[in-house]
Hints:
By secondary structure, the protein is mostly helical. The protein has 8 helices and 2 strands, in the order ββαααααααα.
Amino acid sequence: MTGSTTSSGPLRAVPDAPPTPADLKRRADWEAFTALRATGDPRLRNRLIEDHQWLAHHAARRFAGRGEHSDDLVQVAAFGLVNAVDRLDPDQGARFSTCAMPTMLGEHRRHPRDQTKSQRVARRNTEPHGDRRRSGGAATTRPRTARSAAAAA
């Protein structure tokens, strides 16, 4: 029942036990995300981002030692953290870290791809069988010449 929610917030596994500091923090986060969803207050959003900055540092450490500066890794993870704060639905009942970590790791995986290509080329234009499909004929063993391309146009 740990993933369930009530109108007052996430349920605890042992309802009669006194709340632990982690339970109190989880409840405060749930209330803050609920308030953010209802009001859209930018100060509350910034506070939540600052409170969870440790997640960005944790995600950045997972990608350390791969040739990228640690400051860049933290910045990419922080971008993912901002996206996660904006997208979280507190009524789903999941912890924020559970939702934020895949978002930040996805940003880290996309970062090298986005940094290495100056212009994205469609896959169909880079694969060798693309020309054969568009020409409508059988594959030829020799490349098209400028004259045959001009005649086809």
